[in-house]
Amino acid sequence: MLKRVHFRRSYLPYLLVLPQIVITLVFFIWPALQALYQSLLIEDAFGLSYEFVWFENFIALFQDGSYLYSFKITIIFSAAVTFSAMALGLCFATMADRVIRGSSIYKTLLVWPYAVAPALAGALWAFMFDPTLGIISSFLKSIGYDWDHRLDGTDAMILIVIAATWKQISYNFLFFLAGLQAIPKSLTEAAAIDGAGPFKRFWTILFPLLSPTTFFLMVVNVVYAFFETFGIVHAVTDGGPSNSTSILVYKVYKDGFINLDLGSSAAQSVILMVIVISLTVFQFRYIEKKVQY
To answer: Count of alpha carbons within 13 Å of 241, Cβ hemisphere only?
Structure first.
């Protein structure tokens, strides 16, 4: 017969979680509530006077062509970064899982980009693609392509996608590699004995068993593309040329800190928060059903 254990009442668990609760309230909950309140106001540039306007800031945003254009390029940018970062991370992890000699060096080199700050990663790629000094732009010019991300919006978008993808590959690589190494080798060996080739073994055995890792990384990568790529855009293109790379998170900064339109900037941050929460809920509600745990 099992005995029921009763713990004496203790305040220690509450004291241990108190710092995390305080940090969450101060740095996440309070700013979110403040942004929600400011999104209902029209303030002067210095925040000294304001007028309560209800949802006028939101209505004005959805009637603004430049904001709708930011929506469009943010979807393109996020989809491109999420897909390419996850595909390359999985590809590298699959190759690293097979390496026998020098595997530690190979894995260490692949992890290094994760330690680089987003702004520094953007500056690095901007230097390599510099139209006058960059080694990659010189190569493109030698094969007949005149690269100039300062004047061409498509080149600018490709450049920030490359920089953001490179920054995130290491993170995906680590999780995919851990997932691959957790799969018993006996499964793939049995399939190989039955005559299944490398591609068939990966597609029918390894990839389905990686679905929990893939689902987790998809959520993380979408959030990364929406929120954490600000430093890359700021360092590489400043949202230009002609707002061609002004994704939603950068437009929040630009309207709030440069144009000093505080109400519109707050409304944009609220919309961005709702989008990311909705995407995360959608992924957990519908895509998680296809995950095999």
So the answer is: 9
Whole-prediction pTM = 0.85
Q: CA–CA separation, 254 vs 127, rounded Å?
A: 24
Long-range contacts of 98-103 (CB under 8 A, 24+ apart): none
What is the SS3 assignment for 69?
A: helix
What lies within 8 Å, CB to CB, of 136 at 6+ separation is 128, 129, 147
CA distance 179 to 170: 14
DSSP state of 41: E
Percentages of the chain per state (helix, strand, coil), in multiples of 5: 75, 0, 25
Write the DSSP symbol of residue 289. G
**Cis peptide, bond prior to residue 241, ω within 30 of zero:** yes
How confident is the model over 12-39, as pLDDT tens digits? 888 889 999 999 999 989 998 998 998 9
Distance CA 127, CA 123 (A): 6
Sequence-distant (≥ 6) Cβ neighbours of residue 41 within 8 angstroms? 50, 51, 52, 53, 57, 262, 263, 266
